[in-house]
Amino acid sequence: MSMNVFRLCGDMSHVFSIVVLLLRLRVAKNASGISLRTHELFLLVFLTRYTDLFTTYYSLYNSCMKIAYILSTASIVYMIRLSDPICTTYDKAQDTFRHWAFAVGPCAVLATLTHFISGEGSGYSLFVNIQELLWTFSIYLESIAILPQLILLQRYREVENLTGNYIFFMGSYRALYILNWIYRTYYEPGYRHHYVAYFCGVLQTLLYADFFYYYMQSKRRGGRFSLPTKS
């Protein structure tokens, strides 16, 4: 996988979003307004996408980023679920999106259908076929993994500053990756198109659109960041 400025900025935005969230949890010792379910989905995304971590070497940068995503997200899940006093501030009653039924299940079915209908992995070993299937699943799941967090914020309405920054940089990461794909299409010979990734990347970015609008409005006004009540 080649490196370009859009991919590098996207990766750094992703890393920065995770650092901001870890900082919020460790310093404030408070998980209010943070969705455990979103981060369980992201952890599942990384575990199913990076199955090639110990079988295929691309670069030191690539391997370090994959390990960092898995470990940092696992750390976030652990802190919200089990680490005192952070876990006592997590509002489970508000974080109610049924992520296993309405995210993991449908994405698994869709990935299986896509994998076999498209014929991807045909002619390869069973292990490679499973890797390809899990990769497709992770792409679908990542596109909607932020939903529990966005729903939770809508219920709270008032968005804590670091939480807002975390979500902004997370959304920016995917938007920058769309530019990365466009760049690679024009400037990388033999680049393999992933239309499932394109579709899911655009869908994921669109889910952030409403949040981006109110985030930028709050920054322009310099006031507290709050989301409007949905009628």
TrEMBL record:
GO terms for biological process: protein retention in ER lumen; protein transport; vesicle-mediated transport. The keyword Metal-binding does not apply. GO terms for molecular function: ER retention sequence binding. The keyword Nucleotide-binding does not apply. Keywords: Endoplasmic reticulum, ER-Golgi transport, Membrane, Protein transport, Receptor, Transmembrane, Transmembrane helix, Transport. InterPro entries: ER_ret_rcpt. It holds the Pfam family ER_lumen_recept. It is found in: Endoplasmic reticulum membrane. GO terms for cellular component: endoplasmic reticulum membrane. The chain crosses the membrane at residues 57-80, 100-118, 133-153, 165-183, 195-216. It is a multi-pass membrane protein. Belongs to the ERD2 family. This is ER lumen protein-retaining receptor.
